């Protein structure tokens, strides 16, 4: 059992930022830091660990892809790092997610009899312990630095989320050939994990081929991240993605028995198109600011989308979710469930499945406290009266 940690310091972060930019304040370049990490054969923590230790170990594992900044707000050294862990362009879409969520406040209500709230929800027929699941995140090598194998990563995300009573996620990275996707599904199936699978907006026949494979792995639901249809993704290793027409959305919905959720919806009119196509759900998401640069933050546009959908499909949302209060805010703005991406990835690198379970349980505990302090006995009781929306 290992408990050695490094302390985060401003100097450490500045040095890393400078190294990324090709200079060095500390005398250590990013390349040297990476080499020295490799030389030390740093591995995720196992056994008993604290959340701070998980974050410190994740920093050692992931630099220079991710610096595990005190706040993950899109303003760290990862700006513009896609592939990597940052956002597109100046990372303004990533920053907008953080800023729009930070601008929403919670109304404290303490005259009631809510003592032990129920944080569980029904997710397409499966009871989960809290309204947050793992977001699909792909690219262990080109996005995360390659310190975990594909199998380790799937085991960490899905095993950890399942330990905490919620769902993991498996991605279909645009840069990954079919056999990599198949191996991820094999890990899922072998271990009987409860998870969702995220598909790329490939050609219809290629999506359908991957749908069949996902169905055989016994998963709960599928997402297609429509927002990955951009130029950068198209150019990757000859694999083709495309924007979808309303007819193509309908075709995809009909093509699988699994609930199909369209991810990357950022306007009420496109939410309406998804509802009309028969989608089981949508994810209000700008892909963590990683596809189209300079989009608004998800918390800013969620209420208008929720009003438009008006209960006709399941609404999910993601964007810099780090705390239980963030879950309550997103639900107060109209979501039925949330996803967390980067924070789960970091927890996986810091402490594998135990690190992921630690983070998930922390979210659940924080949500329970927030529900008591806002007077929500169940997740369905969380409503717009509980949030203050900026004008
Ligand atoms: C490294 C990385 C890889 C990602 N890969 C995928 C993917 O393959 N499919 C997908 O739908 N979204 C992908 N996403 C987007 C996430 O699912 C999520 O929408 C986004 O990260 C916002 O959540 P966050 O702010 O909690 O990270 C990826 C995000 C990151 C950071």
TrEMBL record:
Residues where FMN binds: 136-138, 285, 341-342
Location of the active site: 287
CDD domains the record matches: alpha_hydroxyacid_oxid_FMN (cd02809)
Signal sequence extent: 1-33
Source organism, top-level taxon: Bacteria
InterPro entries: Aldolase_TIM, Alpha-hydoxy_acid_DH_FMN, FMN-dep_DH, FMN_HAD, TAT_signal
GO function terms (MF aspect): FMN binding; oxidoreductase activity
Cofactor dependency: FMN
Domain FMN hydroxy acid dehydrogenase: 86-391
Keywords, sorted A to Z: Flavoprotein, FMN, Oxidoreductase, Signal
UniProt-annotated binding residues for glyoxylate: 263, 287, 290
Pfam families recorded: FMN_dh
Keyword Glycoprotein (UniProt): no
Family membership noted in the UniProt record: Belongs to the FMN-dependent alpha-hydroxy acid dehydrogenase family.
Protein name (record): Alpha-hydroxy-acid oxidizing protein
């Amino acid at each position: 059992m290992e408990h050695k940690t490094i302390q985060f310091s401003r100097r450490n972060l500045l040095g890393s930022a400078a190294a990324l930019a090709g200079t060095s304040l500390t005398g250590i370049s990013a390349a040297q830091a990476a080499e020295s990490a490799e030389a030390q054969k740093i591995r995720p923590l196992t056994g008993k660990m604290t959340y701070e230790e998980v974050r410190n170990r994740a920093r050692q594992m992931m630099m220079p892809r991710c610096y595990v900044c005190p706040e993950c707000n899109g303003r760290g050294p990862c700006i513009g790092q896609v592939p990597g862990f940052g956002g597109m362009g100046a990372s303004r879409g990533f920053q907008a997610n953080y800023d729009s969520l930070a601008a929403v406040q919670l109304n404290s209500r303490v005259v009631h009899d809510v003592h032990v709230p129920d944080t569980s929800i029904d997710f397409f027929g499966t009871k989960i312990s809290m309204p947050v699941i793992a977001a699909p995140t792909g690219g262990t090598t080109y996005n995360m630095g390659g310190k975990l194998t594909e199998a380790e990563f799937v085991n960490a995300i899905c095993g950890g989320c399942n330990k905490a009573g919620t769902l993991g996620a498996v991605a279909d990275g645009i840069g990954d050939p079919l056999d990599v996707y198949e191996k991820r599904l094999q890990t899922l199936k072998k271990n009987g994990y409860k998870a969702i699978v995220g598909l790329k907006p490939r050609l219809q026949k290629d999506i359908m081929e991957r749908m069949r494979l996902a169905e055989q792995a016994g998963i709960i639901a599928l997402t297609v991240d429509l927002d990955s249809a951009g130029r950068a993704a198209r150019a990757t290793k000859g694999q083709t993605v495309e924007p979808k027409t309303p007819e193509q959305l309908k075709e995809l919905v009909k093509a699988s028995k699994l609930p199909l959720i369209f991810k990357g919806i950022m306007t009420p009119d496109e939410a309406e198109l998804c509802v009309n196509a028969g989608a089981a759900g949508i994810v209000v998401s700008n892909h963590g600011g990683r596809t189209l640069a300079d989009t608004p933050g998800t918390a800013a546009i969620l209420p208008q989308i929720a009003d438009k959908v008006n209960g006709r499909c399941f609404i999910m949302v993601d964007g810099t979710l780090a705390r239980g209060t963030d879950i309550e805010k997103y639900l107060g703005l109209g979501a039925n469930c949330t996803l967390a991406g980067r924070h789960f990835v970091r927890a996986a690198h810091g402490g594998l499945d135990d690190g992921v379970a630690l983070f998930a349980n922390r979210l659940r505990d924080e949500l329970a406290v927030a529900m008591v302090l806002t007077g929500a006995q169940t997740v369905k009781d969380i409503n717009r009266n509980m949030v203050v929306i900026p004008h």
